[in-house]
Design a protein that fits this description.
307 residues, alpha/beta, eight-stranded mixed β-sheet, six-stranded mixed β-sheet, 10 helices
Length: 307
């Protein structure tokens, strides 16, 4: 069953930019905000987005400050969308600093991000019961340099009925079949990193459609990540798999061999190279909504959700 789907955005809605993970270049933050404002949104930047951790330079400020920015934006009744502007690393460090009951009491709103933000997507869907958008990061070059990525995100935010069918010429049938289920997942290594934590989200429910992608992981490391997920039973409830990009993960043929070796034995439909994640012209894909995965036709179709 799909989760609560926040209403589409409208001109004049307010979006707050947050940085739960890595440092944010000021120029790219400014340019991304300008894109969002050109869509008619009122855009505010959370107080600590441009901070730097005093010691750990891979983090955008102190954990408590990053968590406070996110929680304050989500709980603000005047905010309609919370937009994560950068990935990198750091979202796992803020999970246990968020007041999840307070956030659950706030009205649902749009939440976007990808890469390291996978850790937060899992928390939002499992704890808050709200569907989210696995979307390009607005303060990154792949978003700023691609009108296709920008337009797909804009439509996903304002007119989602126009981007219900996801496909592209590069998509490939890895394992045939047609199946329906609810989307889960995101960045594969972040999913694996969350396993075993006291507050880890539950494994995908029966009938889930897993979305997986990654970046910068050599084939042997992808093998290790997928093997860990398999051994942990993460795929037990998965009914189908849609694969995104594997940028910087080695030779495509070798990566494909690892994916087939580790996932092919599940006996579920698998669609590859769908174009979400760390790639040019990346798609925005909703998490926590019902979809139809047609590996034969090479499409992922959003069926809708509760509003």
């Amino acid at each position: 069953m799909s989760l609560l789907l926040p209403r589409p955005l409208r001109e004049g809605d307010r979006a707050v930019l947050v940085a739960p993970a890595g440092p944010v270049p000021e120029d790219e933050l400014r340019r991304g905000a300008e894109v969002l404002r050109s869509w008619g949104l009122r855009v505010d930047v959370a107080p600590h987005v441009l901070d730097r951790h005093p010691v750990l330079r891979h983090l955008a400020g102190a954990d408590a400050d990053r968590a406070a920015d996110l929680q304050r934006a989500w709980c603000d009744p005047d905010v309609d969308a919370v937009v994560c502007v950068r990935g990198g690393y750091g979202s796992l460090r803020v999970l246990d600093l968020l007041d999840w009951p307070a956030m659950a009491a706030a009205r649902p709103k749009v939440f976007t991000g990808s890469s390291d933000i996978t850790a937060l997507h899992a928390g939002f869907t499992a704890t808050l019961g709200v569907a989210t958008l696995f979307a390009p990061m607005t303060a990154t070059r792949p978003f700023l340099d691609s009108t296709i990525a920008q337009e797909h995100l804009r439509l996903s935010l304002f007119e989602p009925e126009r981007v219900r069918v996801l496909t592209r010429p590069s998509a490939v049938t890895v394992s045939p079949g047609v199946v329906r289920g609810t989307t889960v997942g995101g960045n594969a290594c972040l999913i694996a990193d969350a396993l075993g934590a006291r507050t880890a989200p539950p494994h995908p429910a029966d009938g889930s459609i897993a979305l997986l992608e990654d970046v910068g992981e050599e084939p042997y490391r992808l093998d290790r990540i997928l093997t860990q997920l398999l051994r942990a039973g993460w795929f037990d409830g998965v009914r189908g798999i849609a694969l995104g990009s594997w940028d910087g993960c080695g030779e495509p043929a070798e990566v494909a061999e690892v994916l087939v070796d580790r996932l092919g034995g599940l006996g579920v439909p698998i669609l590859g190279e769908l174009g979400f994640g760390h790639c040019a012209d990346q798609f925005t894909v909703p998490l926590g909504v019902d979809v139809e995965l047609d590996a034969d036709a090479r499409t992922l179709t959003v069926l809708g959700g509760e509003r």
